[in-house]
Every structure is written in structure tokens, then in C-alpha cells.
Amino acid sequence: MKKLIECVPNFSEGRDMSIIKSITDEIETVEGVKLLDVDPGKATNRTVVTFVGDPESTIEAAFLAIKRASELIDMSKHSGEHPRMGATDVCPLIPISGVTMEETIEYARRLAKRVGKDLDIPVYCYEFAAYQDPRRNLAYCRKGEYEGLEKRLAIPEWKPDYGPAKFNPGAGATAIGARNFLIAYNFNLNTTSTRRANAIAFDVREQGRIKREGNPITGKIVRDDQGNAIREPGTLKKTKAIGWYIEEYGIAQISMNLTDITVTPIHVAFDEVCKKAEERGIRVTGSELVGLVPLQAMLDAGKHYLRKQNRSTGIAESEIVKIAVKSLGLNDLRPFNPQEKIIEYRMQEESNQLVDLSLSAFANETASESPAPGGGSVSAYMGALGVSLGTMVANLSAHKRGWDDRWEEFSEWAERGQQIKDRLLFLVDEDTRSFNAIITAMRLPKETDEDKVKRKNAINSATKYAIQVPYQVMTTAYESMNIMKKMIEIGNPSSISDAGVGAIAASAAVSGAYLNVQINASGSQDSEILRMLMEGETLEEDAKKLEQEILYIVRSNI
Questions:
Q1: Can you tell me the distance from the alpha carbon of 390 to that of 491, in angstroms, rounded to the nearest whole number?
Q2: 432, 373 in Cβ contact below 8 A?
Q3: Which domains are seen in the chain, by residue range?
Q4: Residue of 161, 271, 431, 498 marked catalytic
Q5: Which residue stretches of the chain have pLDDT < 50?
Q6: Which of 31, 66, 198, 438 is found 20 to 30 A from 461 (Cα to Cα)?
Q7: How far apart are CA 204 and CA 237, in angstroms?
């Protein structure tokens, strides 16, 4: 999975678009990041910027943006409705894919250290990146705002985590942290009543509602011994919600913020709001995602609804997303385009990958005078087709009449097949990339002794990787043969020949990939390469034996 981190810095300027553009231009100079949104606010005099990229590129872009903001924004002249303490007021990092929260914390602290050291800006680490428990709360870090910052920095307990404990009148201070993804999520109701929408919102939001005696609206407020109003918490943790009327659509909505989707995912929120609405005689007709959403959130939702239908979750990613869109009613008010609304899809560049070609285009490309794609890519693709057949049998078995109680068993096998298929499809293009890396290394200059050493090292490194890739094809394709064998043993008997063909394709992928290992390893004395050669030979023999075992079972049952 590609490593992606989102960064959402808030800059204390929302009126001068030339300043805002100068800051976002800095972000766009960094390769590996994509600017997704720029949202200026005149009243707040604040701009929220959203960009995504690989971790290293993201923190580089964030640093450059913070630096530029410190040069262009003078906090001594700033005013606005939103609480703030710095030119870059807050800069959270959010893990999107392939990155853990622990890793994101380290990236946030690295960024904070660099900002403090290189820019002389006091930095407070907040949320998951906080060193002190009170500083997890952004409001605590920002207490007193810019106007109280000079006095606060003179107090030892307010010493920043990074940077000088010294007032920077122009840039102020910055809060840098790591947090989970926040989703703004609206629920469409078949009512125009804001009061009823609010009632449902109070039922579910974590804060709930104020407890009253008797009548829940007009009854006397129940208070504790200190005189504070007692609240009845809602059913959904890490959520904020309110009801409102949308003139544009002529309906009432529940507007919800999911502040931690690892605690309350979107599908859990949707199901609970539907339940509470129904208890009040109201129906949720659909929902609306405001802004972008991580792919995993949509996949989790799609799989949740597939499981509720006792259906296999081992289907293509695009189909899982489609199920999520339908189940959550995301097309209710306007079309929901996954390519525009899912972060990872927005990050995708225009594809020039082999796996995105049509079957005929792939064949034509292979048949051209170009040496790539070659046998390695074709072997990986054969393996992908083989495991796809095994996965198909698992999915057919999950839906076989009379086998309703076994759908989960086959769904697990199908999911394993999908994962292997995706790995092999990745290796189709990776094999060609590894070949191209060798060509690039061989074209390096060799005029000086230093050039020759660099060229030799580059060729050796590229060659080793060109062996590792087909070796991965071998191990992955061989792993897939266990799926085909299992489907022949327990799967839908009507599809036994399909699983057999899958085994033949997987075995051919193992043998074909081993030829690539052998030719690229020719003459090498590298210990790791020799290990792959020896293990590859055993793997090919095992694959052929397993293929014959599988075909014997298939032919015995045809």
C-alpha cells in the first residue's frame, strides 16, 4: 500500500489571496505531494489548506509553507474571529494509508523540531504527538492566543516543545501534531423539521443532551452537587452533531463531525442514525460526505454491508466501493464520484501502467520490438489470471444455493485471492521497471574512476532487484496454488475445471519467473542471489508437483 499522509495547515490570512497563493505555491514545488483544497475565510482571516503526499515529501512541503507564512504574515497586525496564536496557527498530520499513527507522530515531531530550530518559532506538539497530556488539547496549547503568548512564554511550564521560549512577534507560535482523520458527514432526512433533526443528533452525538426532569424539552435541568448541568451522553463516541434545514434541498439534515473514524467509522454512524431516526418515525434517505475521504473508510463500509447481506467480501475494490456508495445513499442529493471524493484516487496520476492496458493492447505491446514487457511481466500476469480463477470459484461457492451457512468460509478464501492478485498485478509493472533500471544504470557515464565505481554499483543494485522481483512472482504465485487446491477440494464442484486452469497458470508463472531469475543471476557470486537461485529451483519443483496433484484431483472428478 502506498504511504500517504495528509497535512491540513491553518494559516492566519484569509483576505489577501496573493499571500495565500505564495504559500500554496511553495507546497506545489515539492514533488510527491498534491494540493487538494484551499479554503480561505474573510471573517476568520484564516485559510485552511489540505495537501497529501508521501511522508517525507509532506513534511518538506509543510516546512516550506510554514517558512513562507512566517515571512509574509505579521501576527502583530492580525485580527480575526477564529482563535489563533501564529502565522501558521496549527499544522496537523493525518495518516491516510500505509502509515501508522506511531509513524505519523514521529514525522510530526521531526517537522516540529525543524521548524523550531531553523525558523526560531516556538512549537507546541499536540494531540497524539503531545509530550505532555494537557497539550493533547489544541485549545489548551492556544490558551491566551497570540496576545497572551509573550507572557506565557516567560512561564517555565509553558516552555515550547521545540524552538526558543522567546516571543516571535511576526510569526507567533505554531501547534504541530498528529491526529486521526476527521470526516464531515451529513445525513438526509425525510422531514423539514430542524427540531426533530436536532433530537436525533442529540440521541447519537457523544456530548448527548442536558438531562431534565420529566419533559425532555421544558423540564427542569438536573444538576450535580456543584450546580453543573448533568448530561445524558449519546450513543456514538468521537462525534459532534447538530440538526439544520437546507434550503437548497428543502430537507432537514443531521450535520456530524466524526473526529476519529477508528472509533466511529462512517458505516457505524450511518446505521446508528438510521436506527434513532426510525425510532422517531423518520427515515434517513441518504447521506453526504463533505470533502474527501480515505479509501479504507469506504472499503470498510462496503465490506460491512456485504457481510450484513451474507455476501463474499473477496471482490474487486471498485465493487466494494460501489456497495458502500449505494448502502450509504451517497448519490441521494448529487452524484458521488469516487475518483473525486476518495483521497487515494485523487492522488493517482494519469496511468501509463501495463496493467491498465486492454488485453489486446497488452498483447500488442508485448509483441512489439521493445524488449519490455517481457517474460517476467507476462509470468506475473499469468499468475494474476490464475489466482483470479481460484478467487472466482471461492466467490461462486459463497453464493451457491444450499451453502448459505458457508459464505464466510469462502469469503475468507476469496479475500486472500484478491490480495495475492493485487500483489501479482503490481509485479507486472515492477518487473518492467526493474529491467528499465538496469538499462538506466548501464547508460551512466564511465569516463572517470569514480564514474566507473558508481556505474558498477548501480548496475549491481539494479540487477539484484531484477532478480528479487521475479523471485517474488514465484513465491506469490506458488502461494496462490493453495487457494486453487482448496477450492477443488471444498468449492463449487461445477467450477472445478476453472480452479484447475488457475493452478496451471500459477505453475506456469512460477516456472516463467524462475527463468528470469536464472538469466539475471548468470555468473553472480552474490550470496543473496545464490540463495534465491537455490530456493527458486526447489520452488519450481514443488509447484510442478502441486500442479500434477491438483490436476489429478480435477480429472478424477470430471
A1: 10
A2: yes
A3: 4-178 (3.30.990.10), 183-347 (3.30.70.670), 354-557 (1.20.120.680)
A4: 431
A5: none
A6: 31
A7: 8
Phi, psi of 161 (to 5 degrees): -70, -35
CA–CA distance, 84 with 12 (Å, rounded to integer): 7
Radius of gyration of the chain (CA): 29
Q: What CA–CA distances, in Å, run from 107 to 102, 178, 298, 343?
A: 9, 9, 26, 20
Q: Which residue has the cell 490480495?
A: 419
Q: What is the pLDDT of residues 184-219, one digit of tens each?
A: 899 999 999 999 999 999 999 999 988 888 877 778
Q: Which of 302, 307, 319 is nearest to 398 (CA)?
A: 307
- Candidates 39, 78, 82, 300; catalytic one: 82
> Hey, how many other C-beta atoms are within 10 angstroms of the C-beta on 195?
11
Q: How far is CA 233 from the centre of its chain?
A: 31
Give the bridge partners for 10, in sequence order: 48, 90
Dist CA 52 CA 347 (whole Å): 8
Could you tell me what percent of the chain has a pLDDT over 70? 99
**How far, in whole angstroms, is CA 274 from its chain's centroid?**
27
Q: For residues 182 and 94, what is the distance between their CA atoms, to the nearest angstrom?
A: 9
Write out the DSSP string of 308-369: HTT--S-S-HHHHHHHHHHHHTTTSSS---HHHHBHHHHHPPPP--GGGS-HHHHHHHHTSS
* CA 484 centroid distance within chain: 30
Q: Of 294, 291, 281, whose CA–CA distance to 257 is shortest?
A: 291
82 is catalytic: yes
For residue 45, report the phi and psi dihedrals to the nearest 5 degrees: 50, 55
Give the SS3 label for residue 132.
coil
Q: For residue 243, what is the enclosing H or E element?
A: strand 239-246
Residue 351's pLDDT is 65
Instruction: Work out the number of other CB atoms within 10 angstroms of the CB of residue 41.
Output: 15
For residue 1, the model assigns a pLDDT of 63
What one-letter code names the amino acid at 416?
Answer: R
- Cβ neighbour number for residue 481 with a 10 Å cutoff: 28
CA 146/CA 77 separation, integer angstroms: 11
Show the CA angle centred on residue 128, arms to residues 59 and 296, nearest 5°.
75
pTM of the model: 0.82
CB 112 within 8 A of CB 56: no
Which helix (H) or strand (E) segment holds residue 96: the answer is strand 88-97
In order of 192, 218, 253, the CA distances from 197 in angstroms are 8, 18, 6
- Tell me the C-alpha distance between 528 and 463, whole Å: 12
Cα–chain-centroid distance for residue 344? 6
C-alpha cell at 337: 464520484
Q: What residue type is assigned to position 180 of the chain? A: N
The answer to whether 171 touches 132, Cβ cutoff 8 Å, is: no
